[in-house]
Amino acid sequence: MSLSLLIQRCAHGSGSLLSLRSSLYSPVGTAGKESSVSPHADRLRENNPVYCSDVIKDITTMYMESEKEAIYGQVLPSPRYLTYQPEINEKMRMILVDWLIDVHLKFKLHPETLYLTVSIVDRYLSSVNTRRTTGRYIPRSKLQLVGITAILLAAKYEEIWPPEVKECVYICANTYTRDEVIRMEREMCTELSFRFTVPTPFPFIVRLLDVVEGLERQQQTQQLSHQLQQIQSQSQSQSQQTQMQASQSQPQSLSRSRSQSRSQPRSDEECTAYVVQLRHTAFFFLDHGMLDYKCLQFSPSQQAKAALFLALVTLHMKEQGSSYVLNNDIIWTRQLQYYSKAQVRDFKACARTMLDFVSYVSTTRYQSVRRKYSSSKYGEVAKLTMPSEVPDF
């Protein structure tokens, strides 16, 4: 059954989905200004010309400014555009995005291509509706055409080897012709004024993820240095103590050793594994937010912060147990507040909306995100125990 027919029948709950292979994404960077809070993440990659550490902060600032000065339909989608689309509803949009996630995996495209694809779909539907254009709107039979054309445009913008038009036609089960895809491509470019450098959650989340990685590496170095100094100090002290004093202090030394073992710094391998799992978990939440029409009321940067926050909470629960009392200073640290320019209360509503949708979508047939993150390639993070609610700090 084609997606177009599935969308038309979604009110009756019929249809099927593709089950496709997945691909990996690559991290990008972060920058620091004040040495007191800087994770020095850029210094780890300052000799990498691909990373562009000298301009990454300016790029992030540009996206933040674009987000604040956004024009609905041109830069950001309207959070109410479905009100003016008489033949499309939230469920149809979810079906489309769920299918686009599978198509994105099938074509083995970069993750930023997926986020730009959904942005193009939402912005186009925000521009062509009964409110902005008299008598014009997107019929439900053309919604899949809008989606596949959006992924073609996004791939041309982000990828070195974008899919060909004939591949897009084929993956739609030949529901549309090559000429229809090309005409829609021209129409969408014109309607969006060729604006494809727009803020999406992707650049914000990778920026913050690299901040976390920088903090982990910095903390690891500091703890190892501190332990080395302690060992040297203890060695000098023990050489001056008598055998009796050493015997009396043995229980205390054992106690101190046990206490320190609970706060041992992560090894390089453990640190790398933690950062990778955090990245997968953050994108797990962010991809769910992309599925949810209600998340459009929040800015892309808010969605990124909420996804990272939920990922941090999830992994802390995994390490410490579900009964572990979460601390704001542990989860959303001073450094994260500095780089994100936000405290938890600024994106808590978004985190709650995202978490509620993760619980809801698990009861539906639209499982592209859960399938994707249940694979070993993505760390099987979909199988982790998720928070039941957003912690109230």
Automatic annotation (TrEMBL):
GO terms (BP aspect): cell division; mitotic cell cycle phase transition
Region (Disordered) location: 230-268
Keyword Cell membrane in record: no
Classification via PROSITE patterns: CYCLINS
InterPro entries: Cyclin, Cyclin-like_dom, Cyclin-like_sf, Cyclin_A/B-like, Cyclin_C-dom, Cyclin_N, Cyclins_cyclin-box
UniProt record similarity statement: Belongs to the cyclin family.
Every Cyclin-like domain range: 98-190, 226-356
Protein's recorded name: Mitotic cyclin 6
Top-level taxon: Eukaryota
GO terms assigned for molecular function: cyclin-dependent protein serine/threonine kinase regulator activity
Gene3D superfamilies for the chain: Cyclin-like
Keywords: Cell cycle, Cell division, Cyclin
Residues in Cyclin C-terminal domain copies: 199-387
Bias (Low complexity): 230-264
